[in-house]
Structures are given as structure tokens and as C-alpha cells.
Amino acid sequence: MDCRLMKLLHKTTLLYLLATTLILVAAGVTLMLVLRGLVDDEIDEELRLQYDLIVEQIRGGELPNVPLTTIAQVSQGPTAELFGDSLVYDRVQHLHEEYKYLRKTSTINGQNYQIMVMDAHVGWQEFFRTIFLVFLVMAASLVLAGAIINYLAARSIWRPFFQNLNILKQFSVSAPQPMQLQKSSIREFEELREVLEEMTHKSWQEFSSLREFTENASHETQTPLAIIRSKLDRLSQYPVSEEMAEHIVHAKSGVDRLSRMNKSLLLLAKLDNNAFTDKQELNLCEKLQEQAGQMEELFTLRNITLELSCERVRMRANTYLCEVLISNLLANAVHYTPEGGTVSGALTKDKLVFRNTGQPIGLDSAQLFKRFRKGQQSNHSTGLGLAIVQQICQVHGWRVNYGYQTGWHTFTISF
């Protein structure tokens, strides 16, 4: 699986954080614009109120002396309101402060007066900084709390999905019982559960039927094969012509091959059915040497050099299956090694490696471990030996790989 893929909960939480952040930023900008407009309107109303108060005082014959207010008689007639900003030096704080002013010319008691009133302008930089900090703290708290709540809620909602996902990962059609998934109160998850259970149950039933047929067929053919071989043995004891004797030999060879195939299919069926659950401590080096010793005559007959090197490796495994695995790999090496060639076996605590000299087998490595796949050089093989090897490795949680390089076939079993 690609390690760059993101988990569903993390993906939804990240999208939530991104969407919430964008919404809060937009809300913050909108809030600042609205607040600025409201403050500006409030200052304008305050300036108008001061202006109207001064006009009333002048009409009453009083010329007011108000700080930050300028009153001058002018010849120009009445003008419209003019708002603006100005900097005024504060002698106390020794800095310039920002003020907003209203300037307007009005006719009062027959005279034109230009009046300018001023009011302290809110320091927007400081005001913005304060609001920004408060808003940032609140927004961060809101986003964090929302993300936590969203994560916990999503995890609770998606829990049945992830539980069923783990069950699906462990599902095998060779399991003794059909798969049972966790129920959910969410309609979509429940529909998914029903569809998956129906689909996997159908696959399980079909595999069970196929497995039962294979086992029954293998068992039922054992007796007829034994009878045929017995009859052929008896026929070979009678005086027959050379041609008939040759036919009997070919028939016995076919029966032997069919018997081996039958036993191999039965073994595969048992492996699919997890029939070999008993495991014990064993010395794999001893098993390797035993199987090599049993096949010593075959190596000698074909003048094949056998080289073995093994460490004293002990592991928990099924004894019979380990013997079959080693025997099949050695037999495969004998089949594909030319006379005078070399076969080597090396066992370490991490892996078991078989190598043999020979020509390319004419099969893609991906097809090599499939059933009834045989190389061009083998006419007597059942095509099931390497399929059994792979199945045995799967039962024990091992990995088997094949490679061919510079005239050497290599099978590697990694523990």
C-alpha cells in the first residue's frame, strides 16, 4: 500500500480545519469592515452634534471657545459637510494623534461662519491589533475544539466501517465459517455490510463446494487407481509380446502420474482447508539433510553435484509440510538440472535458498507457482509441486520467490 495515502479520519479532519479556517478568516475580515463602518458613523454623528451645538451658541450671541474647534467669519456662502483626517500634536504624550474633523460653512444671524470641529480618531492599528488577537484566540480555540469534536464524532460514526475493514482484510474463502460483519445504525454502512456479506458468503459457498468436490474426487479415485495398478502388475507377470509389454509400461507410468496428481490435489485441498494446524519445534537443517539423503540416488544417477550448507535453525512449523516443501524443491531441481549440473541448498535463520544450473524454463515467474504450470523441459511432472510449495509457505506465513540469472535458477523462501 502506498504510504502517501491519507487515512479517512485525517482527511475529513483536515478538510474540516481548512473549511473552518477559511470561514473564520472571511468572518474576521467582514467583522473588521463592519466595525470600522460603525465606528466611522458614530464619530460622524458625534461631530455633527458638536457642530450643531456650536451653531446654536453662536445664534444665541455667544462665541464659544471649545478646544480643537475653529470658528472663522468668511465671505464664502454656505458649503456642504466635509469630513477628513488630521494629525494633532499631543504635548502631554509628545506624539501626533489621529483626529477626524468636520468642516462646514453656515450662515448664522446674517454672517457666514466656517466651523471646523475635531474629535479623536480611533487608533485603527491598535484597535485592529486588539481585535485581531482576541479574534485569533477565539478562532483557534473554536477550530481546535471543533476539530477534536469532529474527530471523535467521526471515529465513533466510522467505527463499524473500520471494524468491518479489518474483518475483510482477514477474510479467506478457505475459512471454516462464513464472514460475519459488524452491524451499524447508519443506513449506508448497513447496506454495504449486507452486500459484502452476501458476496463473500457466495464466494465461500462456491469455494467450499469446489473443495468438497476435489476431496471427494481424490478419495474416490484412490481405489480404482490401486485396482488398475494391481491388474497391470499382474499382467506384467504373464508372458506377453514386446509390444504389449511396452503398452503395459506406458499404462503403469500413466497410472503412477495420475496417482501422484491425485495425492497432490488432495494435499492442496487440505492446505486450502487449513487441515495442518499442528506445529512443533523442529530442526530444519536435519529435515533438509534427511530429504537430500533420500534423493541421493537420483542425484548420483544423473551425475548431479549436490552442495548443502545449513545453520542449526529451529522453528515452529508442521513437520510433514516442511518435508513436502523441501522434497518438492529438490525434485524440481532434479527435473530441471541437466546431467553433470549442480544443485545447492543453503539454510540460514532468515531464509532457505535452492539453486540449480539449467536453461530457462520458458515460463514467466508470475505463472510459475500456479497449478498445472510446467516448464518446457518437464513431461512427467504433474505441474502441482511449486503450487504446493507456495501454499505451504502461505500456511506458515513465509514468502517464496523465484529468479533466473546467468544460468542459475534460484528459489528463495524467506521466513
Give an account of the 3D structure:
With 415 residues, the protein is α+β, with helices and mostly antiparallel strands. The protein folds into 3 domains: 8-140, no CATH class; 187-272, Orthogonal Bundle (Helix Hairpins); 280-414, Histidine kinase-like ATPase, C-terminal domain (Heat Shock Protein 90), CATH 3.30.565. 55% of the residues lie in helices and 19% in strands. The strands form 3 sheets. A 5-stranded mixed sheet has the order 6-8-9-11-10. A 4-stranded antiparallel sheet has the order 1-4-3-2, covered by helices on one side. A two-stranded antiparallel sheet has the order 5-7. The longest helix has 52 residues, at 8-59. 14% of the residues are buried.
* Uncertain stretches: none
**CATH superfamily of the largest domain, please?**
Histidine kinase-like ATPase, C-terminal domain
CATH class identity of the largest domain: Alpha Beta
Summarize the main sheet. 5 strands, mixed
CATH topology descriptor of the largest domain: Heat Shock Protein 90
Quickly count the helices: 8
Q: What proportion of the residues form beta strands (DSSP E)?
A: 15-25%
* Quaternary organisation of the protein chains: single chain
Indicate the radius of gyration in whole angstroms: 47 Å
Q: Helical amount among residues, as a percent range?
A: 40-55%
- Annotation, overall tally of beta strands: 11
Order of helices and strands: HEEEEHHHEHHEEHEEHEE
